[in-house]
């Protein structure tokens, strides 16, 4: 009886052996997540929005996809993904940051050209897209740079006046109108009208004659004072604001007109067009084609496709 009581007392007493681990070390507790204001939490959320949603063009809904959340739990167990609404609310901040960086790049460019296009999607919603192209400093010298300035919803009729108004608003937003060299667009009448409205010629015949006098004199363009040189450079820049026809669209028109007069090829082109239509509309015909010729396909027959 005495030995049994001694055994119970020794069992109840805490162990003094430092080499024996405590049982609490083997009990896992839930890890504490980053707070919403933690720098690492903000960095991961910003990277998801900037790198995945914007650069990789992934949908905002990915933030709530179970597979993505499992992936993030492996990447960092302490990160708790934000909701789609929270991620969407941060878009304005990202847009302002990227716009500011783009404006700084454009401000350092001496001259630039823009491509302008207007089109309708499958739901017949109009959009106006403007892309800027310029030479900038890069590793090893000058490099050609391009940036999308706008891809705006364009409601209503696509008249030249409305295109001109929208174009000038975008130019004013980025402060680029004075540095424009060329505007590249298609050959549509509304585009021609738009840019003849944006850059009208206000010079009279008398002023044109005065400007042309002596331009062949080589001494006129050398050793000018700084003020006069700036005036000449500004004049040359203003005179170079011209609309250039899109080469792809022009080439398409030339080929289209040429094919209309090549009657001997009409039968072959009609057969090729029918074959292409079958490949893109009949699954059974597609299977037979792939068994005979492999996975290589034929592009869809689209008359107005530019691929520009």
TrEMBL record:
> Which InterPro entries does this chain map to?
RNaseH-like_sf
User: What name appears for this protein in its UniProt entry?
Assistant: Uncharacterized protein
